[in-house]
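Subject: GNAT family N-acetyltransferase structure
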Amino acid sequence: MPAQVLAERRARPEERVASWRRVLAARAAALDADPDAEPVWLAEDPTGLVGFASAGPGRDEEPGLPVLELSALYVRARCWGTGLGHRLLVATLGERAAYLWVLAGNDRATGFYERHGFVLDGAADDSDEHGRHLRMVRR
C-alpha cells in the first residue's frame, strides 16, 4: 500500500474503526445465519491486533475463475517472516482454489502468494485510486 494511503488511513482512525465494526458485524450476522459462511480471521499478540484475513464469494464473474476470492490478508510489518501470513492464509483458504488482487509493485506480497500456489493470470484493474491491481489465481 502506498505510504500516502496508509498515512491518510492513520489520520482517520475513528472512521476506519467504524467501517471495520460494520464489516465484522455483517460477517458475524452471516455466520449466525449460515455456519458455513466465511469468517474473518484475526491474529493478536499481547500488543493487540497483528494481522487479519478474509475471503468470500468472488466479485469477478468470469467462466473458469474460482468462486472464492481472498479479499484481505494483512500482517503488521514487525511480524513479517514469522509465518503469521502463512497461518492466516491457511486458516482462510486451506487448499481451496481462489483468486485475489494484489497491488502492482508489491513484490513481497506477490512472492508470498506465488509460494502458496497463486499465479498472475494477466488481468489488471486500473480503476482503484491507490494504483494498479493484478489478479492472481490458485486452481
